[in-house]
Amino acid sequence: MATAEPIALVQNSNQIQGYRPKLIEFYGYEGDDFRHFQELLDSYLVLSNAHSDNRKLAILKSQLRRAAKVYFEKTILKDHPQVTYDEAMELLKSHYITPELIQNYELECNDMIQGEQEHPQILLSRLREAADLANITSEAVIESRFRAGLQLLE
After folding, report:
1. Which has the closest alpha carbon to 89: 103, 105, 68?
2. What does the pLDDT look like over 13-27, one tens digit per residue?
3. Where are the chain's structural domains?
4. Cα 132 from chain centroid (whole Å)
5. Which helix (H) or strand (E) holds 148?
6. Record's superkingdom (predicted)?
């Protein structure tokens, strides 16, 4: 007769210690989200203990592609040969996060309505995310958009 023994699940600590978020490449084309790229890059740099400015710049440069790489090399490095990582990120941010882009996000946020069969909490979550992209920080504005976007149940 077989006895049931408890099964112990052992987690390999090397898997956790070696975890690094997946880096994405940034092309600089319309529709590319620089803030998402920056968020993943910052996480990667923290988790990989990249503290040296030269190392951070090398990693940044290695993830830029096509239009973004050309802009970085031909404009930023040409105009600021001794640029630091933080300065480079600010210059990239000011180039790729334009007032027009923020306005587009704001318009999209204003046009959000509750989807069919969508729970109101999901709409509110989508609105908060859209407001973040549009740099809307006023909770009153978000709540107003939420009330306007709710569909009346018939």
Report:
1. 68
2. 444 556 666 788 999
3. 34-96, 99-149
4. 11
5. helix 139-149
6. Eukaryota
